[in-house]
Design a protein that fits this description.
This protein has one domain: 3-Layer(aba) Sandwich (Rossmann fold). It contains six helices and six strands. A six-stranded mixed β-sheet has the order 2-1-3-4-5-6, sandwiched between helices. The longest helix is centred in the C-terminal third of the chain and has 16 residues. The radius of gyration is 17 Å and the shape is globular. The termini are far apart.
Length: 163
């Protein structure tokens, strides 16, 4: 497996990969490389190309965001045009990533409910301004987007952007 990190020191992308690595410790999946790509699609494409050359049996790629996952898709497509045996996963639930899932390229993205986070943050800020007490921690649902629910999720994203 290849793990593609974002900008070194960025807590959100570091935590995403650190969490994945913790789960993988006992899975038997061999991690062949952890590479930083600065949350950039082109850098992720280059890092993935390098990893594929060094590790021809590589078949799993986990990226800390969707842009880097899409860069990995581009590199794999260039190296192995028939890449059905690859598992490539990103994080964010961007429209480009969902389109890629629908096209049969990216396998999954973990959508973190960005719209709901923005909505709730303003609701809670208003409560604070009005002197109300707010919860210390507020859970926002995440959605694993795969080929099974990508079209529905894309429709939800498009509805949110129309509001």
């Amino acid at each position: 497996m290849l793990a593609i990190r974002g900008v070194p020191g960025n807590p959100s992308t570091d935590d995403r990969i650190d969490g994945a690595m913790e789960v993988l410790e006992d899975s038997g999946v061999e991690v062949v490389a952890e590479l930083a790509a600065d949350s950039d699609r082109a850098q992720a494409r280059a890092a993935t190309s390098d990893a594929l050359q060094s590790n021809p049996d590589l078949s799993i790629i986990v990226a800390a965001n969707d842009d880097m996952a899409l860069g990995a898709v581009e590199a794999v497509r260039a190296a192995k045009p028939d890449f059905e045996d690859f598992l490539i996963v990103g994080v964010d639930g961007t429209e480009d990533a969902v389109d890629s899932i629908i096209a049969g390229e990216l396998d999954a993205t973990m959508a973190q409910g960005a719209y709901e986070m923005g909505h709730r943050s303003i609701e809670e800020a208003v409560r604070v301004i009005e002197g109300e007490t707010v919860e210390e921690e507020i859970a926002i649902d995440a959605t694993l987007v795969t080929g099974d629910n990508a079209e529905d999720f894309l429709e939800q994203l498009q509805d949110q952007s129309a509001e």
